[in-house]
Design goal:
This protein is an alpha/beta fold. The chain contains 13 helices and eleven strands.
Length: about 300
Amino acid sequence: MNPRIILDCDPGHDDAVAILLAARQCEVLAITTVSGNAPLDLTTANALLMCQLAGLDIPVHAGADQPLLVPAAHAPRAHGATGLDGPPRPDVHLAAASNDAVGVIIETVRAHDDVWLVPVGPLTNIALAIRQAPDIVERVAGISLMGGAVGPGNVTPTAEFNIWADPHAAQIVFAAGVLLVRMAGLNLTHQLCVGQNEIIALREQGGMVPEFVAGLFDFYLTGYRERAGLDAAPMHDPCAVLAVTHPELFTFGARHVDVETSGDLTRGMTVADERPGTGATPNCEVAYSIDAAPALELIVDAVGSYG
């Protein structure tokens, strides 16, 4: 039986791929959107666009348009002005099922005993749900998130974008006491990269969705090449999906993780206590390695299946 999930996202090129992967590997009960890579109206439209292109019958619910305490910030350098720059953009004909993502998260977790929350953007919606309905902490099967890093960040030297964009929400989530939290941070996601071979493979598949994703990858890779001199681009967000569906591909380490919320130089830093013998109680399974070849095959096969 495929795991039941709510995919909380801010599409974003890698979020778009995470939607397609999750729809093939999971029972996706809802897609919820949040301000992050782009403003909320665009992230919601982008989630709807991916459902429309792929023919997915998954309700999309718009969520928080602002972080809890800090000003909203976006990532046009990585994802363009729309959040999904690159290929020609079709008109979006689908509409969001609601603008109450937080309520949907709460009610869905209360209605089922086995729902995973898979947030791959800023953690605002998840934190608001926990704050409004603390009972879901004990009901949720787990949280598998893309965010943070055990090592260097990307938006600052110490912080990854999703956590930096709403550090107060992230700290609420890590401190909530959820029994199982899995963290796919930059130290992990940079091990799973797409390059020209994957673009060629998708175009050989044919079909609207593989061609659209190939166009997304063209834009995404060009940005990484220009900014960092890399010939491949990390598939950050699909890692959080795979950590639920294929945990055997990962190596995890139990750690206590806190989030720096106010440091002038370290806002959004995920501080993992890696000291031996400190007695710190782990609150997170930090992903340290991934078997990249089969993981990449799962992603390419999932996208290609929509051809």
